[in-house]
Design brief:
- The protein has 10 helices and 13 strands.
- Helices cover about 35% and strands about 20% of the residues.
- Strands 2-1-3-12-4-13 form a 6-stranded mixed beta sheet, sandwiched between helices. A 5-stranded mixed beta sheet has the order 9-6-10-5-11. A two-stranded antiparallel ribbon has the order 7-8.
- It has 2 domains: about 35-115 and about 225-265, Periplasmic binding protein-like II (D-Maltodextrin-Binding Protein, domain 2); about 115-215, D-Maltodextrin-Binding Protein, domain 2 (3-Layer(aba) Sandwich), CATH 3.40.190.10.
- The chain has helices at about 1-30, 40-50, 50-55, 70-80, 90-95, 100, 140-150, 200-205, 240-245, 250-260; strands at about 35-40, 60-65, 85-90, 105-110, 115, 130-135, 155, 170, 180, 195-200, 215, 225-230, 265.
């Protein structure tokens, strides 16, 4: 009886040890073979769909959660509903003091050149005095829009305003333009109501706007490359390394060049 009891105790200890070892291995792998990534629908979600099968070959099931705004993906990542997200650039990540303290931008995938479009005019020089210009109400993209207007000679900004510029930093506005601040998703719908609208690349794509028709457009070397973001401390997750390999690939580069030959999306790697 005593030997049997001892044997059972030893067996139990071995099983417990094996269980802890398996659990430790799972934690090192991220706790699961599923990788959940939040993304905006276009082009982020579309590009992620392209690499699902590639990741499956590595034993990783990619789950894509689509968001149509710019706030929920970071909120969901912080609350651990996501393992990563792919929808933003570094200036946007830095626009909220909490985010860069808890989240890390790892690497870029693509650029969606920001542009100014108009349903009424063909050239910026045609804009009348007092014209209404719609642009983003989020700090990161508002600075992006204002810098593009400054580069094109429509306004001047306070020295040093840089990427964080807001309409309050405008020091020269010769034509007395009026600025209407809207959420990014609303900007394409504002085209009929304003003289000029600044529109993020992904929303321009959804609205079927052609960058070649933009009155002002960022270049391919924009600082606003979109890429993958994870929680701090999880940068070396092997699932993320596998995702990088398939997203920063010739397959994706060729797909971007073929799908968006007009330059509405360009590879950023």
């Amino acid at each position: 009886m005593k030997k049997t009891l001892i044997s059972l105790l030893i067996a139990g200890a071995l099983i417990a040890g094996l269980t802890r070892n398996v659990e430790a291995q799972q934690r090192r792998r991220g706790g699961t073979t599923t990788l959940t990534v939040g993304a905006n629908p276009t082009p982020h979600g579309e590009l992620l769909e392209l690499v699902k099968d590639d990741l499956a070959k590595e034993g990783i099931e990619l789950k894509i959660v689509i968001y149509t705004d710019y706030v929920q993906p970071n909120t969901a990542l912080l609350s651990r509903d996501l393992d990563a997200n792919y929808f933003q650039h570094i200036p946007y990540l830095q626009s909220n003091p909490e985010w860069p303290q808890k989240l890390s931008f790892l690497w870029g995938v693509h650029v969606e050149p920001y542009g100014f479009y108009s349903a009424k005019y063909k050239k910026l020089s045609e804009l009348p005095r007092g014209a209404t210009i719609a642009l983003n109400n989020d700090p990161a993209n508002q600075g992006r829009a204002l810098l593009l207007l400054e580069v094109n000679g429509l306004i001047k900004l306070k020295p040093g305003a840089g990427l964080n510029a807001t309409v309050r930093d405008i020091t020269s506005n010769p034509k007395d333009f009026k600025f209407r601040e809207l959420e990014a998703a609303q900007l394409p719908r504002s085209l009929q109501d304003v003289d000029l609208a600044g529109i993020n690349g992904n929303y321009a794509i959804e609205a079927k706007l052609n960058p070649r028709d933009a009155l002002a457009l960022e270049g391919a070397k924009s600082l606003y490359v979109n890429g993958l973001v994870v929680r701090k401390g999880e940068e070396k997750d092997p699932r993320i390394a596998a995702l990088k390999k398939v997203l920063q690939s010739k397959k994706i580069r060729d797909y971007i060049a073929g799908k968006w030959p007009n330059g509405s999306v360009v590879a950023g790697f």
